[in-house]
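Let's practice the habit of predicting before peeking. Look at the sequence and jot down your guess about where helices and strands might fall. Then scroll down.
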Amino acid sequence: MLDKPRQGSLTEYRKDDTIVLILGQVGSGKSTFLNRAAGGTVMTVGHNLTSETKSVSYCVLQDPTQTSRRYIFVDTPGFDDYKTEDREILDRIVKWIKDS
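Done guessing? Here is the structure:
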């Protein structure tokens, strides 16, 4: 089960963590995928062609078979949003990666 989404940079990274960056166009199902992986609603899902996800956020999933291993799913704003240039979206993602 995924935990609640967190904003800001990843501060508690462990060497055995696997980071999964979810990228795609607006409305492609990035947040829906994370909710399905979580088995419930952890991310807000938009229902139009403007990005519901405005900033990078992440959820942590503890591996049930290896307690020292975690998967960190990173939800990102969608590309091809008519209100925000792709370059700005990419800059937000790169900044999150650098800060984490």
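How did you do? The chain has a mean pLDDT of 83.
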